[in-house]
């Protein structure tokens, strides 16, 4: 074998080695990207809230705001936290439901339903709201905040 033939063979061998190495690298990267993103994606999901059942439709009397306590699971990356929450739930027909955040829109005090006066009352600064959450008096700057409600079967869910 002459020196030129040897040099050509070494060049081919080197080229094939680089080609195989390059193809292997591309395949490894193609496999690694979805795998790595599968494991890392939860770390970048902050405070993902899940739909939370808060009550059964049959538990809420028609025309009577009803306070419900519930626990809400919140995901932060890989961690799940359970928060104790509450809401005022109202239905006028037993089919459509409204859920109010239980904090006053003035300075976040808890308010309650005054059955006699048929209005929500916040004792902190005498804030008053009608049954639909509209401001009737006092310092609250806006109506009561509403939660997003979904009905699935006979369950009332928020989230
Ligand atoms: S916090 Fe409710 S009126 Fe001020």
Account of the protein in words:
The chain has one helix and twelve strands; from the N terminus they run H-E-E-E-E-E-E-E-E-E-E-E-E. Strands 1-3-4-5-10 form a five-stranded antiparallel sheet. It binds FE2/S2 (inorganic) cluster.
In short:
The protein is rod-shaped, with a radius of gyration of 31 Å. The chain has one helix at residues 3-44; strands at 48-49, 52-56, 66-76, 79-91, 97-100, 112-114, 119-122, 127-129, 135-137, 146-147, 149-152, 155-158.
Total beta strand runs? 12
Unreliably modeled segments: none
Bound molecules: FE2/S2 (inorganic) cluster
What's the helix count?
1
Rg from Cα: 31 Å
In angstroms, what separates the terminal alpha carbons?
78 Å
Describe the largest sheet: 5 strands, antiparallel
Can you write the helix and strand succession as a string? HEEEEEEEEEEEE
Mean pLDDT: 89
Structural class: alpha+beta
Strand order of the largest sheet: 1-3-4-5-10
What fraction of residues sit in β-strands? 35-45%
Determine the fraction of residues in helical runs and give it as a percent range.
25-40%
Q: Which of globular, elongated, flat, extended, rod-shaped describes the shape?
A: rod-shaped
């Amino acid at each position: 074998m002459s020196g030129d033939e040897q040099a050509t063979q070494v060049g081919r061998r080197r080229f094939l080695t680089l080609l195989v190495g390059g193809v292997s690298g591309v395949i490894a990267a193609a496999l690694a990207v979805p795998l790595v993103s599968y494991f890392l994606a939860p770390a970048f999901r902050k405070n993902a809230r899940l739909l939370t059942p808060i009550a059964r439709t049959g538990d809420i009397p028609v025309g009577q705001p009803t306070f419900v306590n519930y626990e809400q699971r919140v995901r932060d990356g890989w961690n799940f936290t359970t928060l104790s929450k509450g809401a005022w739930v109202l239905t006028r027909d037993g089919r459509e439901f409204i859920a109010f955040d239980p904090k006053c829109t003035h300075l976040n005090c808890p308010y309650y339903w005054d059955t006699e006066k048929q209005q929500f009352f916040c004792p902190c600064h005498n804030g008053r709201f009608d049954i639909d959450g509209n401001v009737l008096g006092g310092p609250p700057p806006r109506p009561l905040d509403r939660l997003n409600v979904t009905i699935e079967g006979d369950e009332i869910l928020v989230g």
